[in-house]
């Protein structure tokens, strides 16, 4: 049987050979609609690009892909580094792509990597329809990290966002705090939504109740969180503690507390960050270890590829959910007692 060529794909998709080549090579200057037509033609014809020359040129060889929100994010930078280190030990190279937390861009990155013949993927999924992944299920094992997707049958490595948040808020309550603010909310992030629920349930179960004016939304980034905590302290000067929902927001909360000269306000951060222990006071943090998440995710991917300790695990047996433990690191900010 004759192997399909670029000409065949171009004819099927009704585009030029040059356009097919751009899509296959992962170039950006192709519209989403045309890229989809080419991808459908590739799947229909079972076209496999000849990537030997390109592999030699860019040094890919046996490669896995990593698709994350942004490698500028401290959490994902550490996670990606752990994936790379574990993959290199197994003799695999790694290519990276960022989504900017955009679902369409996520799909483009995944399609590009599949075109480049990656053997597997580690994916931090963006909320949206992930049906497009099913076309790759048999040939490109995928492990999701930090979040799950709506489709069953994909390994997922996460932490208990809800339970860890409850632990952090309970820690503040144990030190006498009753007026505890929540900063760093954003409805786009399922992880942060779970943390919000944990915060609310913890306060309700403690008989304190939730004051909506102490709950800040749409401020998951550093500058937004700094502005939010400054406004909150001005409007509610009797706030005694802040729970910050992610590391980026935590940096903003720290800046805001110091600008307001309110280092008497207790703080727990969901997520540790560089230099957190050197501040005064040191920042108490829930450590959801990105290195551990990356190592576990890569180990699962290697098992799917037959590069682990046991035999290859077929796609039909995928779907394991692994919850990596968290720990509360006490450094001082979360242990500030309420002034009597």
How does this model look, in words?
There is one protein chain. This protein starts with 5 loop residues before the first helix and ends in an 11-residue tail after the last strand. 44% of the residues are buried. The radius of gyration is 23 Å and the shape is elongated. The strands form two sheets. A six-stranded parallel sheet has the order 2-1-3-4-5-10. A five-stranded mixed sheet has the order 6-7-8-9-11, with helices on both faces. α1 packs across α3, α5 packs parallel to α11 and α9 packs across α10. It folds into two domains: 6-25 and 50-159 and 292-323, 3-Layer(aba) Sandwich (Rossmann fold), CATH 3.40.50.2300; 161-287 and 327-335, Rossmann fold (3-Layer(aba) Sandwich). Mean pLDDT is 89; it is low at 52-60. The protein is α/β, with parallel strands linked by helices and 340 residues long. The protein contains eleven helices and eleven strands. It is 41% helix and 14% strand. It has helices at 6-13, 17-24, 32-45, 52-58, 74-89, 103-115, 161-174, 190-205, 222-235, 247-259, 290-304, and strands at 63-68, 93-98, 120-123, 142-145, 155-158, 180-183, 241-244, 266-270, 284-287, 321-323, 327-329.
Summary?
The chain is an alpha/beta fold and about 350 residues long.
Summarize this structure as a short list of keywords or feature phrases.
340 residues; single chain; Rossmann fold; alpha/beta; elongated; six-stranded parallel beta sheet; 11 helices
């Amino acid at each position: 049987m004759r192997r399909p060529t670029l000409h065949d794909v171009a004819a099927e998709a009704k585009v030029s050979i040059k356009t097919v080549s751009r899509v296959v090579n992962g170039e950006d200057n192709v519209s989403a609609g045309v890229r989809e037509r080419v991808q459908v033609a590739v799947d229909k014809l079972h076209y496999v690009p000849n990537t030997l020359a390109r592999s030699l040129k860019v040094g890919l060889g046996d490669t896995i892909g990593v698709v994350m929100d942004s490698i500028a994010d401290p959490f994902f930078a550490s996670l990606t580094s752990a994936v790379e280190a574990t993959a290199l030990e197994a003799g695999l190279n790694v290519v990276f792509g960022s989504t900017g937390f955009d679902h369409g861009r996520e799909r483009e990155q995944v399609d590009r990597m599949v075109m480049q013949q990656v053997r597997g993927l580690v994916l931090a999924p963006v909320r949206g329809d992930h049906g497009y992944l099913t076309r790759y299920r048999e040939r490109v094992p995928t492990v999701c990290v930090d979040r799950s997707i709506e489709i069953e049958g994909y390994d997922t490595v996460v932490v208990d966002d809800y339970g860890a948040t409850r632990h952090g808020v309970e820690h503040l309550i144990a030190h006498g705090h009753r007026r505890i603010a929540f900063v760093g909310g954003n409805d786009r992030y399922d992880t942060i939504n779970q943390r919000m629920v944990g915060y609310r349930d913890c306060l309700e179960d403690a008989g304190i109740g939730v004051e909506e004016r102490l709950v800040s939304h749409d401020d998951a980034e550093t500058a937004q969180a700094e502005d939010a905590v400054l406004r909150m302290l001005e409007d509610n000067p009797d706030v005694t503690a802040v729970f910050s929902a992610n590391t980026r927001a935590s940096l903003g909360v720290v800046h805001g507390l110091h600008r307001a000269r309110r280092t008497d306000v207790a703080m727990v951060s969901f997520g540790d960050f560089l230099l957190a222990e050197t501040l005064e006071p040191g920042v108490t943090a829930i450590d959801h270890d990105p290195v551990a998440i990356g190592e576990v995710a890569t180990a699962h991917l290697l098992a799917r590829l037959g590069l682990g300790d046991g035999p290859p695990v077929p796609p039909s047996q995928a779907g394991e959910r692994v919850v990596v433990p968290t720990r509360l690191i006490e450094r001082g900010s979360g242990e500030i007692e309420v002034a009597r």
